[in-house]
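for the recovery benchmark. tokens below, seq after
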């Protein structure tokens, strides 16, 4: 027995960088955005989003720099938006091109515009602390199943989590929590690995194989805030047969430094043997089960504390590897480490 008194471990939680991660962030279903201006509160500021006559969604800083009016209270005119206060007109590039009562437009009449794309029936916004345009290699990947009649549409829920997104990211490396949060000690992963390469981070997992039925999943973060997961059940005798195949989407968009909007979407492959009505009921029940499992994590995130110096044991996954990868999106591009694009793999010994 160790007679020397051990000192208690003091949790350290340092304030993060005063910026938001570089990359694409999800703003929900693209169908939610129309020619009626919509207020968005993200990245520590207010934005306005609207769909122009060109069919594109445009996003600008949300307050008019003239006298501070909320542009969301204005009206769309072509591809531009009119301020409700003095009718200054702002084009999608953020430049004011018309002031009804002025002979000359001030040269400084420019507000920030935010790049957007629509992919997989969803809307995304690009954030870059350096003000650079989107990086082509980081484009949101196309998921063909989101357009297929063989799959349901996204069953999407949104919730606000009062924490930093890194707390959610830790799940990619946290192999142990699958057993105790989601399986209540009934057994978890039998194979588990993490892989980092450039802007992508992938978790591969198998569970339950050797007991008849098992589950297989591959979850990949494409940038700092968009994770898509392909998962299915299978029989250990013929793993090629996929049962209850699903695609999950997890996105987090920061409201401020201490909260973010979390969107969780589920795509479910339909069973062709079911009638339309039965299939609809089955899909809804599967989506609710997935949402319920995810809420188990959310309940913990909302009540936990940030720990920058965790006490890790030999059964934990590569938490530090994951955190170093995530930190890259808070650095200027010219500060990225030399091995940023090299593949690093960590296999957990279970």
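predicted aa per position
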């Amino acid at each position: 027995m160790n007679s020397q008194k051990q000192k208690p471990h003091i949790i350290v939680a340092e304030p993060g960088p005063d910026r938001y991660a570089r990359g694409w962030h999800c703003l929900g279903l693209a169908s939610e955005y129309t020619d009626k201006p919509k207020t968005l509160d993200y990245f520590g500021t207010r934005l306005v989003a609207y769909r122009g006559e060109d069919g594109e969604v445009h996003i600008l800083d949300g307050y008019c720099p003239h006298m501070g009016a909320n542009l969301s209270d204005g009206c769309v005119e072509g591809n531009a938006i009119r301020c409700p206060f003095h009718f200054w007109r702002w084009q999608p590039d953020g430049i004011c091109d018309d002031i009804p009562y002025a002979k000359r437009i001030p040269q400084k009449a420019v507000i920030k515009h935010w790049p957007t794309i629509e992919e997989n029936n969803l809307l995304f916004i690009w954030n870059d602390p350096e003000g650079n345009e989107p990086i082509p290699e980081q484009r949101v990947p196309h998921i063909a199943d989101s357009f297929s009649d063989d799959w349901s549409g996204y069953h999407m829920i949104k919730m606000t989590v009062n924490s930093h997104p890194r707390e959610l990211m830790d799940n990619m490396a946290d192999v142990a929590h699958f057993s105790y949060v989601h399986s209540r000690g009934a057994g978890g992963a039998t194979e588990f690995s993490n892989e980092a390469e450039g802007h992508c981070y992938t978790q591969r997992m198998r569970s339950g194989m050797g007991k008849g039925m098992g589950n297989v999943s591959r979850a990949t973060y494409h940038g700092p805030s968009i994770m898509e997961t392909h998962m299915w059940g299978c029989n250990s005798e013929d793993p090629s047969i996929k049962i209850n195949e699903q695609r999950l989407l997890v996105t987090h968009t920061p409201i401020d430094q201490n909260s973010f909007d979390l969107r969780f979407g589920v795509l479910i492959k339909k069973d062709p043997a079911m009638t339309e009505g039965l299939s609809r009921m089955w899909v809804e029940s599967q989506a609710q089960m997935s949402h319920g499992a995810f809420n188990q994590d959310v309940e913990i995130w909302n009540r936990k504390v940030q720990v920058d110096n965790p006490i890790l044991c030999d059964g934990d996954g590569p938490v530090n590897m994951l955190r170093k990868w995530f930190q890259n999106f808070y650095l200027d591009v010219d500060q990225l480490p030399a091995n940023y694009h090299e593949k690093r793999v960590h296999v957990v010994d279970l």
